[in-house]
Amino acid sequence: MPVKTLTGNKAVAYAARLARVKVVSAYPITPQTTIVETLASMIEHGEMDAKMIRVESEHSALAAALGAASAGVRAFTATSSHGLLYMHEVVWWTAGARVPLVMAIVTRAIGPPWNIHVDHQDIWDQRDSGWLISIAESNQEVFDLTVQAFRISEDERVYLPMMVGLDGFILSHTVAPVDMPEQHEIDEWLPERKQPYVITPETQYVMGNLATDEDYYMMRYSIQAAMEAAKDVIKEVDKSFGENFGRSYGGLVERYRVEDAKYHVIVAGSWAGDAKEAVNILRDEGYPVGLLRVRFFRPWPTEDIVDVVGSSKGVITFDRSVSFGARGHLFMETISSLGPLAGKLSVRGVIAGLGGVDVPAEEFAMVIREFIDEVEREGQVYDPAYWHLPSQYRDMYPSRVEEVVR
Amino acid sequence: MGVSEPKTLFVAPLSKPDAGSVGKTGTWRHEKPVIDEEKCVKCLLCWLYCPEDTILRREDDMVYVDYDYCKGCGICAQVCPVDAIKMVPER
User: Fold this and answer.
1) How far B44 CA sits from the closest chain A CA (Å)?
2) Going by DSSP bridges, is the β-strand pair A162-167/A132-135 parallel, antiparallel, or unpaired?
3) B53: distance to nearest CA of chain A, Å?
4) β-pairing, A314-319 with A263-267?
5) What's the number of domains chain B is made of?
6) CATH number of residue B79's parent domain
7) Does B51 touch chain A (CB under 8 A)?
8) CA of A143, closest CA in chain B: separation in Å?
9) Rounded Cα distance, B32 and B12, in Å
10) Domain limits, chain A
11) A222 vs B9: CB contact, 8 Å cut-off?
């Protein structure tokens, strides 16, 4: 297998080509990335057997991909930030149609003010739409997830579209080694496309017509059933990929140094690399801490969370997003999956790194260390929204917004 | 073409349209498409693009219009590459 040095964006493009995508649709202006630029170039140079559809907006880009996928081929698009928000209506239509489709999301902050750096606000904003939502830590994982996404999305137990998230700039525009299987190896591993129905002039289906309220309700129920079924499919695909290509990540979550851990860090995306460094630093200092990296935000890994942190002494989540008026997303999901167990352990929900503010390993270590020391000193800690402010503001503002209001 | 039965409880928003389920929509028309069979090259773009499935196709691929249901949107005339479809005002 050839190892290439690739940006995250190129890794996605190569993965889409190896998956034999037949239709790519995109709006070619900002915030579009080199994912689609690379695909367009490969198609134009005859290196990829696909049709490129240029459209006038992201809303139309996903609509065109949905149309092509409904007609029976692998279709693909990619977007980011404001493009994804503009697409939001069709995001729901695609999941509701139950048509398998794969889309890459370069995760980026949302304006105003303009900001082109990493943040998870755009991708978590899609969380309720019925898409499977994954997020990678490295360029290699972005490549692997993109290939796997077709197999997961097209599984007869799932039939839901899937997003593959990669952190803006940190992965999308940074070069790293990526081990890419050969075309024949992917062909042997990735089955022919399957889907629940096709819409052609011959089949004469209409998708999305007016339905009774009761049927509408049952369609929602069936999306939830597919999400539940997807959990096993994701684990199977991860395992099978590992057997064939030597890389498995642990299914919906990656567990890092959790075996004898009493404290747990929960994090998603590329900065999990920094958080793992922090775990190593703290382990060297004698802190019994492990890390759970969320790879799939939907379906949410409830069982894994309960399994790993159910008997934890303390859990600290790091969110690169916030639901204004509530908490960070990972924090809310974690607490909701723990249910009654949540009352037995200490928790801190850290909100950090918004708009791409850097949080190096030493800062992760500092925040985690403070949390563990506090729990050991004071017993139980419940601290749902701790703002780890940018360093120049740390002395000027409190970490808890409630104190600003008082 | 790649269709495979779902294996989890599956309810999808699909329907098979019935001709005339909302009445004779041809009465909505202000202009009707008239096909010039001499000019038609049987490319079938009009048949493919018609949003109402009212451009019909004969065995020899010559097309004709179902005037009972054609709403007169004119897309067929727009996409015809040889200008073989004219929109003629209804009277």
Assistant:
1) 12
2) parallel
3) 9
4) parallel
5) 1
6) 3.30.70.20
7) no
8) 25
9) 35
10) 3-245, 253-405
11) yes
Position of tokens 């999306």? A223
Residue-wise pLDDT for A44-71, tens only, equals 999 999 999 999 999 999 999 999 999 9
Cβ atoms within 10 Å, residue A139: 27
Closest CA relative to residue A149, chosen from A60, A228, A233? A233
CATH code of the region A3-245 = 3.40.50.970
Domain that holds residue B69: 31-89
Q: Which of A132, A199, A218, A223 to mutate to test the interface with B (most CBs of B within 10 A)?
A: A223
Write out pLDDT tens, residues A179-228. Answer: 999 999 999 999 999 999 999 988 889 999 989 999 999 999 999 999 99
Is residue B14 assigned to a domain?
no
State pLDDT tens for residues A149-170: 999 999 999 999 999 999 999 9
**CA A47, A51, A56: angle at the middle one, nearest 5?**
125
Which of B3, B13, B17 has its CB closest to that of A204? B17
Nearest to B53 by CA among A204, A72, A63, A68: A204
Order of all β-strands in the sheet with A253-256:
A253-256, A289-294, A263-267, A314-319, A346-351, A382-387
Contacts B13 to A, Cβ<8 Å: 96-97, 207-209, 211, 219
| Nearest beta carbon to residue B8 from set A96, A97, A226 | A226
> Is B13 a domain residue?
no
Q: A12-40 burial, b for 16+ CB within 10 Å, e for fewer? A: bbbbbbbbbbbbbbbbeeebbbbbbbbbb
Q: Domain A253-405: state its class.
A: alpha beta
Confidence of residue B73 (pLDDT cuts 50, 70, 90): very high
